[in-house]
Structures are given as C-alpha cells and as structure tokens.
Amino acid sequence: MIQFRSKDLQKLAPQLREKGYYIPQQQRGIDWSAYTINQINDIIDTLHFIRDEVDKIYQRKAHESVGRPPIDPGNLAKAILFTELYSFPERKAEGWIKLLGHHLGIDEHIDDRVLGKGYKNREVISILEKVFKNNRSSDGKNGGDGTGLEKSRKENYESTKKKGLYMTSIVDSREIVQSFDIGGKQECKIMHELVLELKEIIEKSNLKEIKVKLTLDAGFVDRKLAQLIANCGLTPYIFPKKNLTLSSKGYPAWKKMWLNLLKETQVWLKEYHTRSHTESFHSSFKRVFGIVRKILDEAIYTQVLCRIIHNNRRKLNYFSMAVI
Fold first, then answer.
1. What is the C-alpha to C-alpha distance for residues 237 and 225, in angstroms, rounded to an integer?
2. Spatial separation of the C-alpha atoms in residues 153 and 203, rounded to whole Å
3. DSSP β-bridge partners for residue 158
4. 92, 275 in Cβ contact below 8 A?
C-alpha cells in the first residue's frame, strides 16, 4: 500500500492547474424542446407561481384599526416578486401591476412609492423567504462560490471588489440555489453557515442512497470547514493550494480528502469540476437580472432574494420537463 506524504500533495497541487492535466468529461445535453416550452410559458408560469405560492403561505387578515387600511403584505410580496421578474423600475412596475394584477391575485392598487417601501417590510420579507425555502431542492451535487454583484453600469468590479456588494452561494448541478448570503462577511467564514443550511435541505430530501457532495475552490481551504462538511453528511471536495500538508490537526476529514485526491486523482477531479455550475449560475444570474438597483441593505437583500426565487422556479420547471 502506497504511503502518501505532504510533499506528494505539494507536488501534485501545481499540476492540477496545468492545461490538459484534467481529462474533460462529456457535457450535459440540452433538451431544446423543454427549453423552448419553458421560455414560451415563462410569463404564464410566473403569474400562477406568484399567486399560488404566496397564497399558500399568507392568509389575509381583517383590518380592525381606524383609518385607511395599509396595503396587504401578501399583495406587496406578489407585486415585488413580479417587479423583479424583469427588473422593472417601480414606476413602470405600477403600470404592469395595474394591467396584470388580477392574474396575480392582487385586488388593490399599489403605487410606486408603496411598492418601493415594501422591499424593507419585514412581513413581506418573511413571506418571500418562505417562498424561497418551499421552492428549492438539491440533486446532491452541490458547489459553492462567491461573486461580486454590480450596483451600477459604471462600476469597475476589479477595483471595487472589497468595497462592493458580494454574494456567496451554494447551488446544485442544476444551478438551483440552496443557500446564499450577501451580508458582506468573508466568503470562507459565511460558508460555514451556508453548509449548516444545506444540511437541513439534504435531511428533508430523499438523498439517502446518493453520495452528497460539496465542491469548493481554493479560497475555501480550511480544516474546520472540511470537517463541518463531513459532519453534515456531505463529502468535501476543496481544490488544494500548493503549500498544504496532510496533517489533520484534529480534523480527520481534512486528511481523508487529500488522500482520496492522491489515490484517484482523475476520479476526484471529475467530482470536483461539477463546481463549474456554480460559476455558470453567477454569470447567468447577473446577465439575466442585471444590476442591483437598491441602496439600503434590507432592500438589496429582498431584491436578490426575489431574483433567486425566479431563477430556481425557471430551473425547476425546465428539469421537470427535460429528458437528458
């Protein structure tokens, strides 16, 4: 039996980055028929989804106080979800909601100022968080990464990386978001919290016979994180840095992960490189929904949350129809 040492890992790590070292796998196909139907029915599916999902969660309450009743939080949640479908400004959204509000189950007029304030309404945010949690699932092939989100067309991402808005997320191979954070914490630290949230999702899913994994790039090299992933019932795949050692220092999942890499390098890399779906998600998310227009932290969170809900809905619709 081969006895591996730290210097073997340090020798291998630079080679993994060399072009041609990893043997590429066959790309997943696209069911163009399912894709086309999903695109055609997108607006219809969205209107029904918004109405039905919010109504499942929120029951309208009777107004008992004196004076004009406030806008119903359920209607506000529906209006905000619709607004973020195509990233409408509030003024333009008001007109569209007048036109299509009855399809959404909105039975009152919502002007642009009320709509804008709704992004900071805690009851509205609570409704939207429940919609998000009710419409996500994992196929067991999870990847995590972070990315900057532009807040203006003039923003130079490279020069404002530490100052701008930063999102860290975990998505599965279908690019369905499992958990995310835009709180500004360092991405490796916040990943600990996202892993715990992923554990809850996995426990509710029927994935007992599947090897559930989480793949991360070298920015997440951390013994505690590797052990936490293993403790949550997932297999960690974290891309190595060239100065790593096999010493576990009380975290056995760390050494086990690197020994698996050394023993079956190409098999390990095949598992790791499903992480490319995370990068693909971040790219498409920014391309489809555009810049983040909100300024206040609470409103930014609501805007990103709604956009992620729409991403998950579209992906779930497609994979429910696709034959790949």
1. 11
2. 41
3. none
4. no
pLDDT in tens, 84-116: 999 999 999 999 999 999 999 999 999 999 999
pTM: 0.91
Q: Residue 243: which residues within 8 A CB-CB, separation 6 or more?
A: 10
Q: Would you state the structure tokens that stand for residue 152, as one six-digit string?
A: 């203006």
Instruction: For 69-128, give the DSSP string.
Output: PPPPHHHHHHHHHHHHHTT--HHHHHHHHHHHHHHHT--S---HHHHHHHTT-HHHHHHH
**CA dist., res. 164 & res. 184, Å (int):** 9
Mean pLDDT of the chain: 90
Residue with token string 């999870």: 142
Instruction: Report CA Rg, the chain.
Output: 22
* pLDDT above 70 for 162: no
Q: What is the pLDDT of residues 21-37, one digit of tens each?
A: 988 888 888 999 999 99
Domains along the sequence of the chain with CATH: 6-22+137-292 (3.30.420), 33-133 (no CATH)
What are 282-290's contacts with CB under 8 Å, separation 24+? 282/145, 282/147, 282/167, 282/169, 284/175, 285/311, 286/147, 286/149, 286/150, 289/84, 289/87, 290/87
Using DSSP's 3-state secondary structure scheme, residue 237 falls into strand
Q: What is the pLDDT of residues 185-210, one digit of tens each?
A: 888 999 999 999 999 888 887 766 67
Helix axes 276-289, 297-321, angle to 10 degrees: 110
